[in-house]
């Protein structure tokens, strides 16, 4: 196939497969929070393992309550545990260093 673009049918099939396969949840202990112009709020920290996928919904847990993150974008993942994520639909005041981001449970 010319180019690196995926055919729409293959993208749809891969997405359906990804949603149907059980996966281990994850947590990310947030160490740093910052804004990326044109992208949104980003967090970095140590990730517990498990599958982190672009498009996931997640939950931020901290001392003041629980906040829903409607969608993630995985920006960088450097095993064994450092991870940087962009949190869509979240403001800088919604997340802080020391919070925990918890992935979806399946």
Task: Briefly say what this structure is.
With 106 residues, the protein is mainly beta. It has one helix and seven strands; from the N terminus they run αβββββββ.
Q: What percentage of the residues does DSSP assign to strands (E)?
A: 35-45%
How many domains would you count in the coordinates?
1
- Taking all residues together, what is the mean pLDDT? 79
CATH architecture: Beta Barrel
User: Order of strands side by side in the largest beta sheet?
Assistant: 4-3-7-1-2-6-5
List low-pLDDT spans. none
Number of separate strands: 7
The CATH fourth-level homologous superfamily: Translation factors
The major pleated sheet works out as: 7 strands, antiparallel
Main CATH class? Mainly Beta
Number of helices: 1
Computed CA radius of gyration, to the nearest angstrom? 15 Å
CA-to-CA gap between the ends?
34 Å
SSE string, helices as H and strands as E: HEEEEEEE
Helix/strand/pairing class, anyone?
A: mainly beta
Approximate shape: globular
Helix content estimate: 10-25%
**What is the fold named in CATH at topology level?**
Elongation Factor Tu (Ef-tu), domain 3
Describe the structure.
This protein has 106 residues and is mainly β. The protein has one domain (24-102): Beta Barrel (Elongation Factor Tu (Ef-tu), domain 3), CATH 2.40.30. The protein is 12% helix and 43% strand. It contains one helix and seven strands. The chain has one helix spanning 8-20, and strands at 27-36, 40-47, 58-62, 65-69, 71-78, 82-88, 100-102. The chain has a seven-stranded antiparallel β-sheet, with no helix packed on it. Strand 1 (27-36) and strand 2 (40-47) form a beta hairpin. The model has no long low-confidence stretch (mean pLDDT 79).
